[in-house]
Each structure stands twice: as C-alpha cells, then as structure tokens.
Amino acid sequence: MMELINTVLTEQTQYLIWIFIAILVLEIASGVLKAIKNHTLDSKIFREGLVKKAGYLLLIVLALLISIVVQMPYLLYSIMICVSCSESVSILENLIELGIYCPDFLKDILVKTKQKTEDGITKNETK
Description:
Elements: H1 2-8, H2 11-37, H3 43-70, H4 73-97, H5 104-126
Helix pairs in contact: 1-3, 2-4, 3-4, 4-5
C-alpha cells in the first residue's frame, strides 16, 4: 500500500501542495485587504470564501485519493494547477483593485485565463 501512495506523493507533489496552500493564503489575505480598502469587510462574505477554499481542499483530497487508486499522479497535478491558476487570477485582480500596478500583458493573460476557466465551468454546470 505504501508503494501506491509513494508513487503519487512524490517530492514534486509535496511542493505543489505547499504552493497550493500558499496561494490560498495569499488569496484570502488579498481579499481581506481589498475588503478593508473598499470598506466592505463582511463576515458572511468571508465565510463564503472560506467554504469555497474548503471545497477546493476537498477536491484536492479526492483527486489525491483517486490518483493513488488509479496510479495517475497527473490527475492530481492537473486539478491542483487549475485551482491554483484560478486562485492566482483572483489574487492579481485583488491586487489591481488595491491599486498595485500590473503590466498590461499580464492583465491580458489573466482575462483570457479567467474566461477559459469560467467558460469551462459554465459548460459543465449546464450539462
């Protein structure tokens, strides 16, 4: 059993997990800062955000379990990368709203990435 787990929980996977956690923490922090700046700090919105983050964590755990069972670590990697990209877009949007300069090329990449991600989610929700 440990062999199965070790084939998925490699050093690379552990790095991805730590990066993912760091991105979640940064997204929460940037969202709180934006809310403070805009005078919209609300515990209900904060709780909703935390529930979303908890959902992401559950998705990662589920992907990890499935990856171990079917021996497909790339399933876990792809889900972690998608969620991390989505949260990174949110971080940069929050920073832009805080007045932090973001180069135009990066904004364009963000807009395209966000549109593709949201389009994919919308298509899945309508099925």
